[in-house]
């Protein structure tokens, strides 16, 4: 993992963006809501960065802390970036997010969260990743590792913040979720864009 120093002076609301690159081992960080205010709901947060870097603080840790103040637990995913040679740019990150969903749901009792109220949220490329996970939950993208992978990969809700190329016509590749939209019907969970 490498933190990329932002020499350009790019800031958002006066704050520098912590840009992380060269993530070869995915990790997740659990941000529990305060015990007296825990609603049981959990959001798995996916920072953006064009699948090249992760905007880790402003689209990650700061978001988790804010949701905690509302009684919502968060899991921050540090997924693999940049893209892997010979793979679509979202393939390794989607594997990481699907595993994060399985791991989170499997730890619901231990973490005091509701396994039926686990959703995904992302910004830009992280929103694209969240949309992919929300439409490909019936298609695990990695071989089963352990018993954690026996639980549902289906998020219970999805929040997309300025998503990257989720709808594109004509449909050019598996990156575009348009080809998966035929699976969306009145029984589908809520997606907020």
Poorly predicted ranges (pLDDT <50, ≥5 residues)? 1-7
Give me the number of helical elements. Answer: 4
The strand order across the widest sheet is: 5-8-6-9-10-11
Briefly note the structural class of the backbone: alpha/beta
| Molecular shape | globular
Mean pLDDT value = 85
CATH structural class: Alpha Beta
The CATH homologous superfamily is termed Alpha/Beta hydrolase fold, catalytic domain
Which CATH-level-2 architecture? 3-Layer(aba) Sandwich
The CATH topology annotation reads as: Rossmann fold
| Sheet having the most strands | 6 strands, mixed
Strand fraction: 15-25%
Helix content: 10-25%
Order of helices and strands: EEEEEEEHEHHEHEE
């Amino acid at each position: 993992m490498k933190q990329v120093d932002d020499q350009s002076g790019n800031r958002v609301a006066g704050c520098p963006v912590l840009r992380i690159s060269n993530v070869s081992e995915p990790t997740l960080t659990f941000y529990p809501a305060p015990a007296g205010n825990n609603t049981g709901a959990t959001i798995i947060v996916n920072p953006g960065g064009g699948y090249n870097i992760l905007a880790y603080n402003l689209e990650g840790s700061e978001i988790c802390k804010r949701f905690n103040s509302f009684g919502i637990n968060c899991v921050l995913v540090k997924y693999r970036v940049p893209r892997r040679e010979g793979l679509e740019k979202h393939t390794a990150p989607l594997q990481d997010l699907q595993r994060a969903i399985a791991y989170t749901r499997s730890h619901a009792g231990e973490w005091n969260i509701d396994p039926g109220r686990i959703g995904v949220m992302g910004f830009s490329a992280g929103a694209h990743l969240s949309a992919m996970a929300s439409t490909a939950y019936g298609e695990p993208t990695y071989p089963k590792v352990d018993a954690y992978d026996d639980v549902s990969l289906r998020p219970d809700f999805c929040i997309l913040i300025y998503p990257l190329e989720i709808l594109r016509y004509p449909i050019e590749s598996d990156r575009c979720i348009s080809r998966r939209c035929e699976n969306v019907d009145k029984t589908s969970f809520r997606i907020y864009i």
